[in-house]
Amino acid sequence: MSFKSLRTVSFRNLCGEEADLRGKNIFLVGENGQGKTNFMEALYFCSYASSFRGVKDGEAANRDSSGDFSVQAEIDSAVYTNINVTYRDGKKTFSLDGKKTADRKELLDVIPSVIFCHEDMDFVSGTPERRRWFFDQTQSLGDVLYLDDLRNYRKIMKNRNAVLKNGYSGDAAALLDALDPQLVTYGFSLIAKRKELAGYFSSVFEPLYNEISGIDDVKIRYVPSWKSGDPEEELPTLRGRREKDFALGLSLSGPHRDIYIFTRKGKEFSKQASTGQKRLLALLLRAAQARIFSQRTGKKPVLLLDDVLLELDGEKRRRFLQLMPDYSQAFYTFLPEEPYQNYQKSDTIVYSMKEGRLRAGI
Questions:
Q1: What pLDDT does residue 342 have?
Q2: Any idea what the CATH number is for the domain that residue 337 is in?
């Protein structure tokens, strides 16, 4: 699975010319603000019909446009040849070989990509929600049923919170009596898979981090909000918390409040780690994510590495490139002064990027 070409219309500052991407390794070289990250974002849109920047869809439109945009890619895949994502009049649609798809999850298996970017630091230093998002994405890439359970859980949680905000009444209590068993069912399904993933992820991540940083015993610990470990025990406990839930108008416990902790020798590592160690932690989270995806599915993802090598010293950069997860295609962004020539291979395509326009060579 790989990209053969990409064309955009009114997407960020990209000029919209068709880019030939028929190579395993593609370098985008240019100064900051010229469109390298925007190009990566367009590729990511083709994989997931969303941005990795955590912005609303409409913000990806060119400022001089009407607010609409589209990204279209020709791909090398056993099933499909074209992906198109269009945002028009505030609505997003996506199609495969010209046929509209009803659910964005149908894109997950078409041309999965793993992005390495500055925003990944949120998974280390940001909120528990961002860390949950990362591990939920990791699980969903190889398990669409997990995504279904997550969606169902969120839907029930949304309904439950709506009941809580209206305040206590007999009718409200009856509604919660109907919602809570469903919440517990889907919630414990998520918990079981999160526990399994945390152990699996640690087994991949720990040696990878040790090999590049020289720091051992860095693990991921999953801490569920529900402590009982048994749906039959948690349901009455959930009922017992209703008074507090009604007082605040939201659900105070459940998988939406689970946390993941990076530990070393039993202590929280992210609190004692240096900035450089945290950056490497974020980078290798993505490397482990790509490895786990391949191990679970037997498929190789597309890697999108946006300026992340710049943050490593020469030795760590060399080690990282030696331990890169296997991939079907990789895109890298570089500043002109970086020694990107040292990383070129026989099949590398080098593009210069200036004012949203790609040009072959430098």
A1: 85
A2: 3.40.50.300
- What dihedral do alpha carbons 333, 305, 208, 289 form, nearest 10°? 180
What pTM, to 2 d.p., does this model score?
0.92
**What is the identity of the amino acid at 175?**
L
Whether residue 311 has pLDDT greater than 80:
no
Residues 174 and 288 in one domain: yes
Give the count of beta carbons closer than 10 Å to the beta carbon of residue 189: 19
Q: 226 and 335 share a domain?
A: no
- pLDDT for 243-286, tens place per residue? 999 999 999 999 999 999 999 998 999 888 888 899 999 999 99
User: Is-contact 353 34, C-beta < 8 A?
Assistant: yes
308: phi then psi, degrees, rounded to nearest 5: -80, -25
| Residues 41-78 pLDDT 10s | 999 999 998 999 888 888 899 887 788 999 999 999 88
One domain for residues 324 and 274: no
Residue from 248, 194, 267, 200 nearest 225 by CA: 194
Structure tokens at 15: 């000029």
The phi and psi torsions of 274 (rounded to 5 degrees) equal -75, 170
Cα 237 from Cα 303, distance rounded (Å): 44
Q: Are 18 and 72 in contact (CB under 8 A)?
A: no
Report which of residues 36 and 324 the model is more confident about.
Answer: 36
- How do strand 348-354 and strand 267-268 relate by DSSP bridges? unpaired
- pLDDT (mean) for 9-15: 93
Q: Residue 202's domain spans which residues?
A: 128-292
What confidence category does residue 33 fall into, taking pLDDT thresholds of 50, 70 and 90? very high
In total, how many domains does the chain have?
Answer: 2
